[in-house]
Specification:
With 245 residues, this protein is of the alpha/beta class. It is built from 10 helices and 10 strands.
């Protein structure tokens, strides 16, 4: 499967939030790294079809996602930055509710929900009310609901924000595993999340990709452009600080 961004732009009156972005994505984990206000969430909402594109196209295997309609929603999973839930629902009740919104049969939904809650480490909490969950547990539930329809494209907006280091590592491992058989786009401002698991990294600033590549190619970029002629230990944090501070 191939997801193509073709000169995607979002403009609000005189403000350009996303400026002519182009990229081709296939199976793997793509990290979208930038400071707050860079346009990451706007871009992800356009990829999800929630926000209308001002100009350009987003295509899956050559078809515009707007023309695909429900066929596109069937292959899409989304965890927004502020993921809504019903605090008095149990985890299983919430999963079944989301499954019904996605048009999944009740028998499949129940079986698959059990599987996904176990996958994210919530099988023992399936009958607990969500209001008793920690932030990390709620985020794991968010991942589980995004996977209900076995999506081929998974969009995760700041999924590890507010998590403790142990939960963050658990999340990273889960996302890396998910990227083996689908397109995963992970947006964050936490550099270590991207550095550990992304196959390809986009650095985004003021609505544009200012540089992109594998971790190795970004190291070469750093040594050639940021600190030419000097060999030194590299980590993504150094490149991030160069562009964002």
């Amino acid at each position: 499967m191939e997801l193509v961004l073709d000169r995607v732009t979002k403009q609000y009156k005189n403000k350009i939030a996303v400026d002519r972005l182009s990229a081709k994505l296939q199976e793997g984990v793509y990290g979208l790294l930038g400071a707050n206000g860079a346009g990451k969430t706007t871009l992800m909402r356009m990829i999800c079809g929630i926000l209308e594109i001002s100009s350009g196209e987003i295509r899956v295997d050559g078809m515009d996602i707007g023309a695909m309609g429900s066929d596109y929603r069937d292959i899409l999973g989304y965890l927004p930055q502020e993921f809504g839930y019903y605090p008095n629902f149990t985890a299983m009740e919430f999963m079944l509710y989301i499954a019904s919104l996605k048009g999944l049969s009740r028998s499949y939904a129940r079986q698959h929900s059990r599987y996904l809650l176990k996958k994210v480490g919530l099988d023992e909490q399936a009958r607990q009310k969500i209001k008793t969950f920690s932030g990390g547990m709620r985020q794991r539930l968010g991942i589980a609901q995004a996977l209900l329809n076995n999506p081929k494209i998974l969009i995760l907006d700041e999924p590890t924000a507010g998590l403790d280091p142990k939960e963050r590592v658990r999340f990273r491992n889960m996302i890396a595993d998910l990227g083996k058989e689908r397109i995963v786009v992970l947006s964050t401002h936490i550099v270590s999340d991207i550095e550990e698991i992304a196959d390809w990294i986009f650095l985004m600033k003021q609505g544009q990709f200012i540089t992109q590549g594998t971790l190795e190619s970004l190291k070469e970029h750093y040594l050639a452009v940021v600190n030419p002629g000097k060999e030194e230990p590299f980590n993504l944090e150094k490149l991030y600080l160069f562009y964002f501070q």
